[in-house]
Structures are given as C-alpha cells and as structure tokens.
Amino acid sequence: MPIRFDQLDHKEFQDCRQVGMTESEVVELAQAFRLYGFFRIDLDSGHFFATSDVFRMFGMESTKGPLNMVEFRSRIHPEDMPMLMESFERTCAEKQSYHNIYRALNAENQYKFVRTVGKFRAKPNSAGEIVGITYEFFERLRTAAFSDGEQ
Hints:
By secondary structure, the protein is α+β, with helices and mostly antiparallel strands. The protein has helices at about 25-30, 50-55, 70-75, 80-95, and strands spanning about 35-40, 50, 95-105, 110-120, 130-135.
C-alpha cells in the first residue's frame, strides 16, 4: 500500500459560536456516533495519555494514567509503523501538525482504519507535547442513526 505525504491546507478556524453553538456541543456531536478519542504525549517522559475511546479503538483495556506503549504499538499494523514514527519525529522537530490514516487492531483482532490528527504544543520548561484526536475512519456508507440523548 503506497504512502502518500500530503501538504495540509491550513483551514480558517471555524468559530462555532457564530452559529450559536458551544465548544461542548461540537465535541458532543463529533463523538456521538463514532469512536472519537483525545490524546496527549508528554515529550519529556514519553508518556501517552488517552481518553477511553482511544483504548476502545485499539482493543485495549482502558486504564488511568499513561497507556502501555508496548501493547499500543502491537495493535498498529507493522507496515504502518514507519509512517507513524516519521510523522511523530517530524512533528517534534519542526513543531508542526500532522495527520495519518493507518490500520489498527480492534477488540476482535480485525484491522480497521483510524485517523489521527495531532499537533505540537509548546509547554514551558520542557520539550513540549503532542496533542490530538484519533477516530474511526471508514468508507462512506449510506447510514442513518438517531439518539434520544440518553446515555
């Protein structure tokens, strides 16, 4: 499978408040019908912190504190690991944003595509950190789903 390195078009920030929405509503809607997790990697310690949906996407048991990087790496398709490592290294060195689409094992040990979007964030008196989102990435299917708001 060929790897494609895209230049990102920096989009203008869309302020949801212009249409009367809150940031919380945007997050709620974004994660309403698909797994949509958030993460932070501390560059000094190498610790990777993630929300429960990241653990679910990779078929891992959710834990408090940093996730097990050995287990996490084992859930990524081996052919995709070099691309992810290069993206991580370039993001740290050039203090930029990135996105990757790659294969990850789910709880049923089946590969599916996920997308990660991350960026370097400066942190005083440290090497900084990478923050981002990861979500399920799948082909466009004709689908309808509804929720009554109940958890």
